[in-house]
Amino acid sequence: MPQQLKLKVKRQDATPDAQPRWQTYDVELPDGAVVLDALLKIREDMDGTLTFRCSCRAAICGSCGMKINGKSNLACKLQVTKALSDLGVVGNEITIEPMGNMPVVKDLVVDFTPFWSKIKAVEPWMQVGPVQPEREYLVSNEDMLHQAEMMNCIMCGACVSECTSLAIDANFLGPAALAKAYRFVADPRDAATQHRLEKYSEYTGVWDCTHCFMCVEVCPKGVAPMERIMATRELAIEAGVTDNNGARHIKSMAASVSESGWLDETRLAIDSFGLFNLSAQMAMMPFAIRSFFRGKAPMPGPLHHKRPGAENVKRIFRKLEGHH
Hints:
This protein has 14 helices and 7 strands. It has 324 residues and is an alpha+beta fold. Strands 2-1-5-3-4 form a 5-stranded mixed sheet. Strand 3 (65-68) and strand 4 (71-74) form a beta hairpin. The N and C termini lie far apart (58 Å).
C-alpha cells in the first residue's frame, strides 16, 4: 500500500554567500521504500535541482550519508517506516540535512576534503622495517579477524558528522581517521608502531576524544571508532608514551579515585597540565572562577577527604591491576 510522506530538506545553493533554507516535498512511496527512494523520486519527477550523492544503493559505497531526523545515516539503508518509528517522529514528516562538521557544497552534498586530509595525516599504509623478510609475513587468524572489524569501514563520514569533539575543535583528527590509525597500530606486520603511538598521542589525536559514543551509535558497519581510540590510548600507555596531558590526566584520575574513593579535581588539573605550566593554568582560570561562583568549585588539597568505603574502591583497582 502506498504511503504519503513529507520530506523536509535543508537546501543551500553553491554560491559563496548562500544561506540554507528548508523546502518541503510531498511524496508517495511504496511499502519498504528507503529514504533514498524518496530523494530520487523528488529529483526525477518533481525537482531536478535537488542535489545529493548516491551510487551503490546497497550500503557499500557510503556515498549517500546525510542527517535524517537529526542523526547521520545512509539514505539507502534506512527504511522510511523505520525513520518514522525508531526516531520518534510524530506524523509523516522526515527532515533531511547535509552531514555535519564538513562544509556544504550544495544541498545535501558536503566537501570531504577535511575528511580525507585527516585520513592521510595518520599515514594509512603499511610501514616496513629496515630488514626485509625472506618470505611473506604470515598473520594469525585471530589477528586477521580483529583487523576485519576495522576494515569494514566504508568511509561514509557518518562518525565524523556526529563527532562532538570536531564540532568544537576542527583540528581533531576525528573518529574515522583514528579508527584507521588503530588498524595499522594493531597490525603485527607494521614496523612503525612506536612512531604511530607517539604521533597519535599528540594534540588532535586520541586524547581529544570526549567519549560521547555518537560515532559508535551512527556507524552503519559496526566499526565502533571510539572503542578503537580507547584501545590506542591503552597501547600508547603500555608503550611508555605518557608525556602528554591525556596520559597524565588518566593516571591522576585513577590515583585520586583509588586513594579516596572519588575524584580530586584540583589535583587532576595540576597533574594533567603541570604545576608550573603557567600558560595552561591561566587558560583554565576563567573556568575555575565561573565554577566557584556557581558552587561547583572542587575542594582543594587537604580538604579532599576519603569517602566511606574508599578501601573497597582501592581493592577493585588492585584486582584490575593484577588482572593486567
